[in-house]
Amino acid sequence: MPEIKDTYQTLAFPSEEVLLKEKGSKFFGYAFPVASEDEIKSNLELLRKQHFGAVHFCYAWQMGTEKLSFRANDDGEPSNSAGMPIYGQIQSFDVTNVLIVVVRFFGGVKLGVGGLISAYKTTAQMALEASEIEERTIDVHFIVSFDYKNMNKVMRIIKEKNLEIIFQKMEMSCEIEIATRKKNAENVFGTFESLFEIGIKIKE
């Protein structure tokens, strides 16, 4: 049976600003960890305020672990000369849930498409090299429901299997949300499912 891949790489926190100078143009690079399109928007807005007067804010992002979504934006540069070279670095560093923005101040000399591709690619690479990349697990969340009298039974399994408790509601009928690595999910589900009077379902 093939081993289930249940880890991914992302950024621990936003990178430091990096700067590439090319024939008078300045390229500022930034890498951010992101979890939603709202976060992408707010990071771009912050940079637009910070770099008032810059000509281009080119970027690429990728999100997701099993189903990936991505976007690359040239922001007025010639087609595929900025966004895709930036996205290529996201792929080459094998990271996800990440946004890379390269802000360009035009220096008066045109770089040509080849020069632009090289500058945007290099700045994106520098931003990722300035970032701390960490590995995280892809987790599956379950809801376990049971009567109070079965509490000890449930808690014993949670402890034995070293499961993370995300949320718990303890009343006459109890509910606990637990999380486990994807590769252990089937085993955890089977253990709870085989118990009398205890329900388990995947949290959507």
TrEMBL record:
GO biological process: regulation of translational initiation
Top-level lineage group: Bacteria
Domain called Impact N-terminal: residue spans: 23-128
SUPFAM superfamilies: Ribosomal protein S5 domain 2-like (SSF54211)
One Gene Ontology CC term in the entry: cytoplasm
Range of residues in the leader sequence: none
Cross-referenced Pfam families: Impact_N
Family: Belongs to the IMPACT family.
PANTHER family: IMPACT FAMILY MEMBER YIGZ, IMPACT-RELATED
Protein's name according to its UniProt entry: Uncharacterized protein, YigZ family
Species per Swiss-Prot/TrEMBL record: Flavobacterium noncentrifugens
